[in-house]
């Protein structure tokens, strides 16, 4: 069998911002290839460019130099609309602030990515139910997000991010707003689900517990992306 196509490929990617008359390079010649089934952690001090990197991978922003490929498609060659579709269909997001839609029930929130990608058929309700059971919220399908605890909301966000079986999951400090024990539960689910679905997960975190269970540990240091030795 030929080797599977990488999920993400960054080739010599740099990103600069104008700062008054000067130009500041936030990312310098970043090269990295991410594959299906990898559970990857991204570390870096505040301001080191972690969100910038996620924005480049998701096509929200474009690099100043270099190329970004997601699922083999080079983002700079796509129109903004095509990038939006790619993001919607091929990427799941989890944010620190959960970002659930308050006017939709738990079930409707998880159904949304399936609806947006035209995959809300007879099977989608089963998929949502099954995900809800997996994250331990099978009895909260009809609740609205503001009735749930922070940990429960983040479990819904995990289910939503994976509902449309995206090959790539991007998470920006998904446990930042949770206490340690709740954060651990959410990470268990996140890891279990991404492994089960053979997705590639790239997770920004400061959580040492997450670093210990990652397949790969990446770190942004003065604009360079460095790969550290992951657990043995
Ligand atoms: N649109 C922008 N215009 C100008 N500068 C920007 C822009 N976006 C980010 N930056 C700068 O790029 C640097 C990296 O920002 P980024 O948000 O990627 O860091 P981060 O590692 O995610 O930080 P944190 O952990 O605090 O969220 C910062 O110095 C920020 O001020």
UniProtKB/TrEMBL annotation:
Residues 8-232 form the ABC transporter domain. Keywords: ATP-binding, Nucleotide-binding, Transport. CDD domains: ABC_MJ0796_LolCDE_FtsE. GO terms for cellular component: membrane protein complex; plasma membrane. Signal peptide: none annotated. GO terms for molecular function: ATP binding; ATP hydrolysis activity; transmembrane transporter activity. Pfam families: ABC_tran. InterPro entries: AAA+_ATPase, ABC_transporter-like_ATP-bd, ABC_transporter-like_CS, ABC_transpr_LolD-like, MacB-like_ATP-bd, P-loop_NTPase. It comes from the Bacteria. Belongs to the ABC transporter superfamily. Macrolide exporter (TC 3.A.1.122) family. This is ABC transport system ATP-binding protein. It comes from Archangium gephyra.
């Amino acid at each position: 069998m030929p080797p599977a196509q990488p999920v993400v490929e960054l080739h010599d990617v740099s990103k600069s911002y104008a700062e008054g008359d000067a130009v500041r390079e936030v990312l310098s010649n970043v090269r990295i290839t991410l594959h299906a089934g990898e559970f990857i952690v991204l570390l870096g001090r505040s301001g080191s460019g972690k969100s910038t990197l996620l924005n480049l991978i998701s096509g929200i922003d474009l690099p100043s130099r270099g190329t970004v490929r997601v699922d083999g498609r080079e983002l700079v060659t796509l129109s903004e609309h095509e990038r939006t579709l790619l993001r919607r269909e091929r990427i799941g997001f989890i944010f620190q602030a959960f970002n659930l839609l308050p006017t939709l029930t738990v079930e409707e929130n998880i159904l949304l990515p399936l609806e947006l990608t035209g995959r809300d058929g007879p099977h989608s309700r089963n998929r949502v139910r099954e995900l809800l059971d997996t994250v331990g919220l099978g009895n909260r399908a009809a609740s609205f997000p503001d009735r749930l605890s922070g940990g429960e909301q983040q479990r819904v966000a995990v289910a939503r991010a994976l509902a449309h079986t995206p090959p790539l999951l991007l998470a920006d400090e998904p446990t930042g707003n949770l206490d340690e024990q709740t954060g651990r539960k959410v990470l268990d689910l996140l890891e279990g689900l991404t492994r089960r679905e053979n997705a590639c997960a790239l997770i920004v975190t400061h959580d040492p517990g997450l670093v210990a269970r990652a397949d790969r540990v990446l770190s942004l240091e003065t604009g360079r992306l460095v790969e550290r030795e992951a657990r043995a």
